[in-house]
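[RESIDUES AND BACKBONE]
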Amino acid sequence: MGKKNSKYVSRQPDEKGIIHWSDEENQVWHDLVKRQLEIIPGKACDEYMEGLRLLDMPHDRIPQLHEINQVLEETTGWQVAQVPALIPFDEFFRLLANKQFPVATFIRTREEFDYLQEPDIFHEIFGHCPLLTNPAFAHFTHQYGKLGYAASPKERVYLARLYWFTVEFGLLKTQQGLRIYGGGILSSPGETRYALESDTPERKPLKPLDALRTPYRIDIMQPIYYTINDVNELFEIADMDIMAMVEEAMELGLFEPKFPPKPKDAA
């Protein structure tokens, strides 16, 4: 969601809605998917793995958006929408409020294979779309979009933290142990391991008010993760008075950051 300029340019579909990816771009997709599929079994939550099965994405090429849309439409009524590399908050929330998940149609280069700060098509399709087949996750994302679209710029900054600690970096406590449902983790091999296996981060039960007050940085491994016990908890959170919590969070102020300030010369 865009503040700075992107060096990436989204590819435009042709008149039939098909995006023509290069062999190298398809190969990057293949290599990213192959690597992540080796890591996520036993780490991703069951609902994500089921969504992956339903989407049945190609491994040898980047999927076309209509292929994803067909499954999302049948499961939860969602769609993905082709967008430029970075979009304003207003457009981001408008799309979510209309059950459209924005997908920037570019894929990272080899130089940024392990990590890039901007969400590319691998992050959006592989990281997020499997869970958009899940009713609770889809409902939460829809409600979040509607709230964000009506919110003030200051309120949106607080709302962004709730999204960060659920949709992007959420963990699930299951009887089999901790599992991942956040797409920011599931599209990053390093964070997939770190989130579950490292002793460094804190892991706390999610209280929406706490998440709204927790600062984060996008360019580091997360120092704190919030956990829920069941994906269906997202139904309950979505139907809480989140904007009243945003007001309360504004009055209480932010928690102390659990990370050092960003270096001055950082982009």
Remarks:
- The longest helix spans residues 23-39.
- The chain has one domain: 23-252.
